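EI: anyone free to look at a 115-residue chain?
SC: sure, send it
EI:
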Amino acid sequence: MADETRKLSLGIKDRLTLPVLFPERSNYIGQVLVEDISKKIRVDQADMKEIELKYSEPDKDGKQFMTWNRDKEKDLEIEFTQAEADFLKKQADRLDKTEQITAELTPLIRAIKGL
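SC: here you go
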């Protein structure tokens, strides 16, 4: 069914991490799917204010990390079209085949494969 959608509940960390799956280059349809998914998972200014999203102080190596008030975080249930779900699964499979999945990515990849 063309109108069928798949739902996925994503926290802030998932929404910030999901773009790691996007290919740097693809065909036109792939880029349209990237744009559409990006709009759905976007963390906007209202989200940032609500959860107090900010960068940490640089560590000894100069690296900074995003932090937020986890008590104020709420998962967002996002509906993906079948085409978007298939695209995300394909990207998860690509990372799997090239052994680029980290322990941090594993829960997100598992959720995507379950779409």
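EI: The radius of gyration is 15 Å.
SC: 👍
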